[in-house]
Amino acid sequence: MAAEHKTKLSKNLLRMKFMQRGLDLETKQQLEEEEKKIISEEHWYLDLPELKEKESFIIEEQSFSFCEDLLYGRMSFRGFNPEVEKLMLQMNSKNKAKEVEDETVELDVSDEEMAKRYETLVGTIGKKFAKKRDRANYEEAENGNIKPNKAKKMFLKPQD
Amino acid sequence: MAEAAAIAAESLAGSKARAARTVLGQVVLPGEELLLPEQEDAEGPGGAGERLLRLNPGARSRVRVVCGPGLRRSGDRLLVTKCGRLRHKELYWVDSQQKRYVPVKGDHVIGIVTAKSGDIFKVDVGGSEPASLSYLAFEGATKRNRPNVQVGDLIYGQFLVANKDMEPEMVCIDSCGRANGMGVIGQDGLLFKVTLGLIRKLLAPDCEIIQEVGKLYPLEIVFGMNGRIWVKAKTIQQTLILANILEACEHMTTDQRKQIFSRLAES
């Protein structure tokens, strides 16, 4: 038979760990906060008025890089050091926040080059499966089309 | 200069803090206090501040102010610590001149390797202590693949840690792990020392000296913010000419400089 009223559990029992597993996060957090608020006599605290936090709105910055737009420290002129000249363009344009889209376009291979590459692909893959003697045929004809045209060397019967 | 000094002396004697806005471009001396724009209104003439109706007298709309080199925070005001001209561009700072370098985080400097101890190099950067540089702070360096750095080499790197309480640390790598031109500076060339103000002047975006120097002959220059410049050209004579120009251009007028360049271009 169902109980008409729920058995009342004590506060200490409810605060025990196994009773709190079923609770959702919110109630758990509320319980934790309540626990913290209860200051027992053993808990020490400072009996001072609340100090107002001094919010400083002045930030100190010792670096000159924010004061003036300075260029990149390494420089090269008239092609003395090509790597440094490339770096100069890169770093100085970074400062001015220019978009560096031009570089990526150059790196892409054009369609024509791709087609040329694939023309000779047949030859290069064929080379892989050719026997050692046939590989020489491929190397000879690299300038033009690569075709293993040479006939196989057969046994020549000696003429009497 | 005498008038500027007299005005500055008056203000110090009167010990009245001036508004930072009014002092822009003028000479300031250490010990002066500067008011920021908001505080001017409150401390304005008479009871003008009180007459203004404020709903929340305590909470002012606070705009973040950044104070740069030569200025310090003292309470709500700025305290000047170096003598020079006050400038403003996003932040307030004092344009001063000095020869002694104090390490600052993020600065790119030229250092000389003085010692190799265990996993770190000791690099002399012209500050109060030698900076430490770990051998892993180079591009592509691993425990097995050590960088080729010897005692006496020149290093171009930046500071990772630089404050008055700790030994400065430098690295030759940026936050992404790329070198970006940092690392050991190549063979030959000449290293010499100049004032810090000249470095900043030469690295300004519109510096004519660098543009003219670049037209003379092929050369390479590295500027360190610690007052060190390394130059290299094809012959020793060209390198020495370049070094002399850069050292002397601090005290030359524009005309004198143009004369010298035209003479060089002829020869």
Automatic annotation (TrEMBL), chain A:
Residues 139-160 are annotated as: Disordered. GO terms for cellular component: cytosol; nuclear exosome (RNase complex); nucleolus; nucleoplasm. Coiled coil: none annotated. GO terms for biological process: maturation of 5.8S rRNA. Residues 149-160 have a biased composition (Basic residues). Pfam families: MPP6 (PF10175). PANTHER family: M-PHASE PHOSPHOPROTEIN 6 (PTHR13582:SF0). This is M-phase phosphoprotein 6. It comes from Loxodonta africana.
TrEMBL record, chain B:
GO terms for biological process: CUT catabolic process; DNA metabolic process; exonucleolytic trimming to generate mature 3'-end of 5.8S rRNA from tricistronic rRNA transcript (SSU-rRNA, 5.8S rRNA, LSU-rRNA); nuclear polyadenylation-dependent rRNA catabolic process; poly(A)-dependent snoRNA 3'-end processing; regulation of gene expression; TRAMP-dependent tRNA surveillance pathway; U4 snRNA 3'-end processing. InterPro entries: Exosome_RNA_bind1/RRP40/RRP4, KH_dom_type_1, KH_dom_type_1_sf, NA-bd_OB-fold, RRP40_KH-I, RRP40_N, Rrp40_S1. It is found in: Cytoplasm; Nucleus, Nucleolus. GO terms for molecular function: RNA binding. Residues 26-90 form the Exosome complex component RRP40 N-terminal domain. Coiled coil: none annotated. GO terms for cellular component: cytoplasmic exosome (RNase complex); nuclear exosome (RNase complex); nucleolus. It comes from the Eukaryota. Keywords: Acetylation, Cytoplasm, Exosome, Isopeptide bond, Nucleus, RNA-binding, rRNA processing, Ubl conjugation. Its main location: cytoplasm. Belongs to the RRP40 family. Component of the RNA exosome core complex (Exo-9), composed of EXOSC1, EXOSC2, EXOSC3, EXOSC4, EXOSC5, EXOSC6, EXOSC7, EXOSC8 and EXOSC9; within the complex interacts with EXOSC5 and EXOSC9. The catalytically inactive RNA exosome core complex (Exo-9) associates with the catalytic subunit EXOSC10/RRP6. Exo-9 may associate with DIS3 to form the nucleolar exosome complex, or DIS3L to form the cytoplasmic exosome complex. Exo-9 is formed by a hexameric base ring consisting of the heterodimers EXOSC4-EXOSC9, EXOSC5-EXOSC8 and EXOSC6-EXOSC7, and a cap ring consisting of EXOSC1, EXOSC2 and EXOSC3. This is Exosome complex component RRP40. It comes from Loxodonta africana (African elephant). The gene is EXOSC3.
